[in-house]
Amino acid sequence: MEPNKTYHRKKICVIFFAVLLFTFVVLGRLVYLMIFRGNYYSGLAADVQQRERQIKAARGKILDTNGVVLAGNKSVCTISVIHNQIEDPEGVIAMLSKELGISEEKVRKRVEKYSSIEKIKSNVDKETGNRILSYGYSGVKVDEDYKREYPYDELASKVLGFTGGDNQGIIGLESVYDSYLQGTNGTILTTTDARGVEVDNVGEERIEPVTGNNLRTSLDANIQMFAMQAAEKAYIQKEADSVSILVMNPSNGEVLAMVDYPEFNLNEPFTLIGEFAQYAGTKDEQDYCNQMWRNHCINDTYEPGSTFKVITASAALEEKVVSKSDSFFCPGYIVVEDRRIRCHKTTGHGSESFVEGIENSCNPVFITVGLRLGADRFYNYFEQFGLLGKTGIDLPGEAATIMHKKENIGLVELATVSFGQSFQITPIQLATTVSSIINGGKRVTPHLGVQVEDGDGNVVKKFSYETREGVVSDSTSEEMRFLLEKVVSEGGGNKAYIEGYSIGGKTATSQTLPRSANRYISSFLGFAPADDPKVLTLVIIRNPKGVYYGGTIAAPVAKEIFENILPYLELQ
Amino acid sequence: MSGKKKGEKKQVYFDYNLLFIIVFLLCFGLVMLYSSSSYISANKFGDSTHYLKLQIRNIAVGMVPMLFFAKVNYRRWRNLGTFAYIVSLILCLLVLFPIPVLVRSSHGQARWLNLGPFSFQPSEFAKIAVILFLAMIIEKIPKQMSKFSSVLKVGAFLIPLLGVVAYGNLSTAIIIFGIAVCMLFVASPRYAQFIGVGLVGVVGAACFIMFAGYRAGRVEAWLDPENAGDAGFQTRQALYAIGSGKLFGKGLGQSLQKMGNIPEIQNDMIFSVICEELGLFGAVCVILLYMLMLWRMMVIANNAKDLYGALLMTGIMSHMAIQVVLNIAVVTNTIPNTGVTLPFISYGGTSLVFLMSEMGLALSVSKGIRLESME
């Protein structure tokens, strides 16, 4: 029997300690992996183990000034399938194709696709979703979802705008206030095994969605409705291309109604209507959609024509180059340099005072006044009134003013500008500028967004808008209100006169370019009460058939609106 | 030394510490095996206890040789070393040929022999055979072991077996090589040469890994498991499990990675479930338990009555140590992936039965140790 020698023992110890050394190496590795990299690896593990399903957040509502919902949400369902959890694929395919009205072939493709989760159809109404649930097939998921719903279809379509497939705002208020209206989507994290089958005893982790905030606007659904009906009537009667109506509060710039008829159905924004309907299905369909969605009140400019005389008169009164009692003589035309510019009344208005000149909307009177101002001063007023820039309204795509360069304004240009021709502004720019003249000289920012509210009506954010005092003096403002009241009570705007109300206003008939096409834009700008304006209305009828004088066709539309909204707003 | 022979018969020692650790590890192994395999076996076989039942059977079967080897005086095996070596060489050769009924394949490699109701991995038997064989030779020529050339000659006997095993199963060959080096290291009074052999072994293993076709992808998977695609999948998933265990783990039975994410979870990768469920704390406890076991083996080896017993213990101890360290190193991606089971805890019949036989041998050696030197 061979004995165990000392060196044997020593060497056995060496082996043991070598093993200990290696053990410390792997222990160190374990500490590194489990303590220092623990969060990293458990995050990656969770990615492997959890399946994410989104819970869509409801989008905030758009409310009118009284809280009437103009844009809300409808509960719908999204139907998806989880391949690995389906036990009876044939049954599922037959059921889904029957309930959802999709061909079996299409459903089969989705069901048999090897993916973690496959969406079959979204925007399925609730009853269908519940019916699908009641079949009790495993592997079929019905998730609650929201779809934007516009209860009034066409009402204020171009102002409100609509949302796309991901609930994002596309045009109008929906796009401008998207960040407030968007909610935060939630998620359902389901723990699954390697095959994607849900693990029973581990609960779902839910991150609840947060509903978006509501937007309170200055729009008044009733006024918008009155205005739209009036626009529709004029559109049909005059066979016009389009009719725009703006109703705003001249003292603070709040827009009460903005109509651009024909309006489209917000619940089907991609369905081409009216003159565009013929292009449905063509390759330019999208371009025509964009045209249909265009809001002429802000996206396009036009020559304002005689309504602009309000601005010429204000500038002249402010500079004191004219007074109400100044007398003029209109022979039916006026010669500026080598041009003979006609008055709309070719026989001439004869001798008239400045007040009568405004009532008659006499071109030679305003050309004379404009020439007295001179190009420099007139241009400076253009700037002071804010006509050179944009109004800053909270709607996308506002068009800029198209105006002569200061150094290019000769006498002829000055003469045409004086009665509202040879330059272009947007309807909202005209309404805003006139508002600031008649409200005592305060330039306001036209707007629709008033405040952001949470679901309980608490104010989250109140919007403030820039104002600029001293655009015109109080006395000029007062004189203008007096003059414009005369236009309605005694002058060319008399078709807007309503017994018992004091209304100020100005008509316009402008010929569009090219002049040879004989196309006109008739418009009327009115406000009430004349001495303390609380509401201002601008009616624009584009390319009416038959009689095209603003005083004849646009003023009655404004009258109809005033008749409805003045009692509604309880204004005298 | 001669004076101490008197007390030998009276004081019959038995290492209950070692026995306790073995029993504890076996029971703990059953718990972890059930925890790690219940979900997948319920899905695969419709019975969550599928692997648990088989492992209980394996333990029951393993009890028989363990008790047998513990009971019989280990010196009786001295002359069977050559026989064991030749039998294991034949069996390992046999398993290389795809004989239809006799040989079973797994993962593209033939590793099992079918013997009636049991299947059997000859490479596991080769480990114990090498321990018996080397202990036998060294005890016969102890004086010559001081010459390094004789050490190499003895080692040369193992080349045929190593070659055959390595052809089908590199990790087992590495383990056998490691056992042999440890035993020869203890037998020889020299140091320097063994360091050289160790270096050659490491370089050789590295070269083999580089050039062996089916392992080339494993190197990439080792260096960057997260971007190695399918090759790094198992390692990656094991790392996720280990990392998500953090300090105290998710709690017994709470692993999520065991739900089919980690392949071979009940086998080579069971340590990752221990980490995920019991945390760093549990993992350290398990490692300490193994260290305690190795320490008991060292004590038995150092106090063995004779050189043969000491050598047997050295072989058994190094076998245990290599498997434990390699397994944890693989699971933690410290070394490239290679299939090594965790003793007593991993699922696997042959491995368990032979490990328990070795434990029987160890207990038998412990019976003869001289208590005086233990104090």
Task: Explain the overall architecture.
- The complex is a heterodimer of chains A (572) and B (375).
- With 572 residues, chain A is of the alpha+beta class.
- Chain A has 19 helices and 19 strands.
- In chain A, 37% of the residues lie in helices and 20% in strands.
- In chain A, strands 2, 3, 4, 5, 8, 15 and 16 form a 7-stranded mixed β-sheet that branches. In chain A, strands 10-9-19-18-17 form a 5-stranded antiparallel β-sheet, with helices on both faces. Chain A has a 3-stranded antiparallel β-sheet with strand order 1-6-7.
- Chain A starts with 5 loop residues before the first helix and ends with a helix.
- Chain B is mainly α.
- In chain B, 64% of the residues lie in helices and 4% in strands.
- Chain B has 13 helices and 3 strands; from the N terminus they run αααβββαααααααααα.
- The longest helix of chain B is centred in the last third of the chain and has 33 residues.
Condensed summary:
By secondary structure, chain A is an alpha+beta fold.
Helix content of chain B: 55-70%
Percent of sequence in beta strands of chain B: under 5%
- Secondary structure: number of strands of chain B: 3
Number of helices of chain A: 19
Determine the structural class of chain A based on helices, strands and strand pairing.
alpha+beta
Low-confidence stretches of chain A: none
Mean pLDDT of chain B, to the nearest integer, reads 85
Order of helices and strands of chain B: HHHEEEHHHHHHHHHH
Instruction: State the end-to-end CA separation of chain B.
Output: 16 Å
Oligomeric form: heterodimer
Strand order of the largest sheet of chain B: 1-2-3
- Euclidean distance between termini CA atoms of chain A: 129 Å
Give the averaged pLDDT of chain A, no decimals.
89
- Per the principal axes of the C-alpha atoms, what is the gross shape of chain A? elongated
* Major sheet description of chain A: 7 strands, mixed
Shape of chain B: globular
Rg calculated over all Cα atoms of chain B: 21 Å
* Poorly predicted runs of 5 or more residues of chain B: 1-10
